[in-house]
Recover the amino acids of this structure.
């Protein structure tokens, strides 16, 4: 599987990473190299094998659906690049 | 005379209990060593005030007769662990200035046991890397050098700062994390011991995530006994991590008898890969002979899907990373790009992530995005998860046949020169992980033990792989190997 420049551009956008137009050919080449390496997986007979999600056959624990920590907006916002009036602030989203 | 910072945890503990040293003296010795270690670039955030405060508290606790094994022991913490009020960036610019409002469970466990945090340790950004060259703090440097050669070498990765700090006696021990070999490979490159426990043994809560189904915390130490002591303090069930195992933590240290007579050690033939360097093959053979001399039975075993572990890992791990790292959007913490006229929220995300993530992280996030995208999910991600199930089954089969532990190489070489593996060839760097990723995929515990030096005077290690939840038995095998190998070499101080 070879990745062309259009696909590289699309993947970068899906990943929300700005990539300069002139850097796309190199990126496409590197992604292609990695994907070619992964092609080996096609040699394996996986007929009837269940895809693995968890390494230990345990059921995820359930917890009570209650608030355990709350009322700490200052701590939640303490690392925000832009916080105003108790909220995270972002550029205008809706016109 | 041994300097205090050169002690093992067990030695320091015994001296503390006898009243022959104090936590403050141990801590001061380490802080002095750290201040003289800038060329190694291992400690990237120093926390001397916290260290001395905790050391004084530990001394008071020891005096009152309450002295758990880790009480008063100065340790370094990998930057991937969230530590309250202390910069925790996973070596990434995207988390620039991030001071968590909370403490990770593992570092809290260590603090509760009385250990002393000296500071935060360098690593590959988000634990993605095998050389500690991908770090917003710059590369960490191995205290070891080739005989008669000043070429700076990698301490390995991603826990490169942890390995360098332990090998250079900047601390008595350090925390690491291991997603695809990030504890064991740096341990091998620096002549130290490191164990990646069974998945679920240590809580992942507060450990900045790379690949959640693979990440596991573990100790990096100067001896197998120290690994047993420190793992005991780090491990335990945590309701805040739903994958944390609710099973008792045994006294690992008490299980170190060194007696492995009659144990069956598997030697996996698929690990003897084409082009395996002769020094790696030789150390593997020596380790095998040591275990045989200790009374173990050596058994040739087959793990037929070994070859596919690396490609499966490099699908699964980036896929999980692309999802985990979606949270770095410039809104809640860390870096936000300066926006231009007319830039909206999409530009904010894209510019923030382009500026904040290093190149290797960007590459892995994009690979993960691709393999999870519509049309490719089954071809890549689901297929990799099926292959992963087969790799796990390989191990289950050999353990069902009565194998107690597996002995294997850790990396295809000794520590290599910084910059020797080209950035533009990701696959070449990924090949470093060929022996280590298998057990992350299977969730098994593995321990790195230094066994000897190569012709250039660099340490070489081997890994033992054990049954799930049997870290105690695994560490006992490692203890037998450590005793037989008698590895006592230290890097010559040049920094």
């Amino acid at each position: 599987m070879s990745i062309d420049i259009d696909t590289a551009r699309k993947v970068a956008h899906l990943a929300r990473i700005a990539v300069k137009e002139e850097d796309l050919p190199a990126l496409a080449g590197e992604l292609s190299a990695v994907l070619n390496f992964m092609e080996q997986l096609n040699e394996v007979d996986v007929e009837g094998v269940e895809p693995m999600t968890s390494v230990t056959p345990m059921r995820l624990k359930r917890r009570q659906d209650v608030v355990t920590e709350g009322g700490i907006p200052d701590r939640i916002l303490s690392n925000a690049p832009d916080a105003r009036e108790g909220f995270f602030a972002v550029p205008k989203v809706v016109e | 005379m041994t300097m205090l910072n050169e002690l093992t945890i067990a030695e320091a503990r015994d001296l503390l209990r006898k009243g022959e040293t104090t936590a403050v003296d141990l801590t001061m010795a380490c802080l002095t060593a750290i201040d003289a270690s800038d060329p190694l670039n291992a400690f990237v955030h120093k926390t001397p005030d916290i260290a001395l405060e905790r050391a004084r508290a530990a001394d008071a606790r020891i005096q009152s007769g309450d002295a758990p094994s880790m009480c008063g022991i100065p340790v370094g913490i990998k930057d991937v662990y969230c530590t309250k009020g202390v910069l925790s960036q996973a070596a990434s610019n995207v988390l620039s200035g991030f001071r968590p409002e909370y403490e990770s469970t593992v570092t809290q466990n260590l603090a509760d046991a009385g250990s002393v945090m000296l500071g935060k340790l360098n690593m590959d950004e988000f634990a993605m890397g095998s050389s500690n060259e991908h770090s917003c703090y710059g590369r960490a440097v191995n205290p070891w050098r080739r005989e008669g050669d000043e070429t700076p070498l990698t301490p390995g990765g991603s826990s490169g700062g942890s390995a360098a700090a332990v090998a250079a006696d900047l601390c008595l021990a350090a925390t690491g994390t291991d997603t695809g070999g990030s504890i064991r490979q740096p341990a091998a490159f620096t002549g130290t011991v490191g164990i990646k426990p069974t998945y679920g043994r240590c809580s992942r809560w507060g450990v900045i995530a790379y690949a959640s189904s693979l990440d596991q915390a573990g100790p990096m130490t100067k001896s197998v006994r120290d690994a047993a002591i420190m793992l005991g303090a780090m491990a335990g069930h945590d309701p805040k991590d739903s994958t944390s195992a609710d099973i008792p933590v045994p006294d690992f240290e008490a299980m170190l008898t060194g007696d492995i007579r009659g144990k069956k050690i598997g030697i996996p033939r698929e690990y003897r890969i084409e082009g395996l360097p002769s020094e790696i093959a030789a150390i593997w053979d020596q380790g095998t002979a040591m275990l045989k001399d200790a009374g173990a039975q050596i058994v040739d075993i087959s793990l037929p899907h070994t070859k596919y572990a690396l490609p499966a890992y490099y699908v699964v791990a980036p896929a999980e990373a692309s999802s985990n790292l979606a949270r770095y959007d410039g809104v809640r913490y860390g870096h936000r790009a300066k926006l231009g006229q007319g830039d909206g929220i999409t530009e904010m995300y894209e510019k923030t992530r382009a500026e904040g993530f290093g190149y290797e992280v960007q590459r892995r996030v994009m690979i993960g995005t691709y393999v999870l995208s519509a049309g490719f999910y089954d071809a890549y991600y689901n297929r990799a998860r099926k292959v992963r199930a087969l790799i796990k089954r390989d191990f289950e089969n050999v353990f069902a046949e009565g194998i107690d532990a597996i002995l294997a190489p850790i990396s295809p070489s000794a520590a290599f020169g910084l910059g020797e593996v080209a950035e533009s060839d990701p696959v070449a760097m990924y090949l470093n992980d060929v022996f280590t990723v298998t057990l992350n995929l299977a969730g098994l515990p593995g321990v790195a033990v230094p066994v000897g030096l190569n012709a250039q005077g660099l340490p070489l290690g081997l890994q033992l792989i054990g049954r799930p939840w049997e870290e105690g038995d695994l560490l006992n095998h490692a203890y037998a190997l450590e005793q037989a190998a008698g590895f006592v070499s230290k890097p010559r101080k040049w920094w």
